[in-house]
From TrEMBL:
This is Small ribosomal subunit protein bS16. The keyword Ribosomal protein applies. Residues 101-117 have a biased composition (Basic and acidic residues). PANTHER family: 30S RIBOSOMAL PROTEIN S16, SMALL RIBOSOMAL SUBUNIT PROTEIN BS16M. The keyword Ribonucleoprotein applies. The gene is rpsP.
Amino acid sequence: MALKIRLARGGSKKRPFYRVVIADSRAPRDGRFIEKIGNYDPRLPKDSEARVNIDAEKAAEWIAKGAKPTDRVARFLSQLEVDGKPVYKWEASNNPNKGEPGTKAKERAEEKKEKAEAAAAAAAEAAEAPAEEAPAAEAEEEKSE
């Protein structure tokens, strides 16, 4: 039997509340579970202590028995300690290609960059042109005197 430490959703529509449970991996998300070891309320501020409540000792016992936490629960467990040791060592499963912009966004960024370069070049030419005309204007004034 493969055990998972995962979130089971509760609460009403648009007001989520989660229980952290130990469940068989084949059981439905909100269905049968073995034991409830904590809860998670995402509506509370991130710095609130009541946002995540997990019994670290029970979690450590279940991990020792072979339960595997989901990514979200693993992140929570990595912040907890039992006897000075973290309950679980969480390694970010970040896919760097997932955050990369799509082809259309890249094309828009390239067009924006080209327009900015063209505007900078036009501004540089405009700044140089009056500087060249100024000595010519002074020369004309000297001739008229």
